[in-house]
Amino acid sequence: xxQAIPRPVLHVSGDRAEVLYDGVPTWVxxxxxxxxxxxEYVVVYAGNALERLAAADAEEMLAFxxxxxxxxxxxxx
Length: 77
Known about the structure:
Layout: E1 5-13, E2 16-21, E3 24-30, E4 41-45, E5 48-53, H1 55-75
Parallel strand pairs: 3-5
Antiparallel strand pairs: 1-2, 1-4, 2-3, 4-5
């Protein structure tokens, strides 16, 4: 199952961006997001950057997902 998750942009080259995907630098396709730069966040789904996301919103969503993941792990213990 794929999920649309915010990823920090490490590098932009043409119509591709390198993002940090679960600790691993990964290239994704970027189209329709003008002036994307390293340090910004994009929502990634199935290898495509779908939209730019404000850093505060991205960090809030990532913290929520991390907490949810931890809660689920504790539930199966």
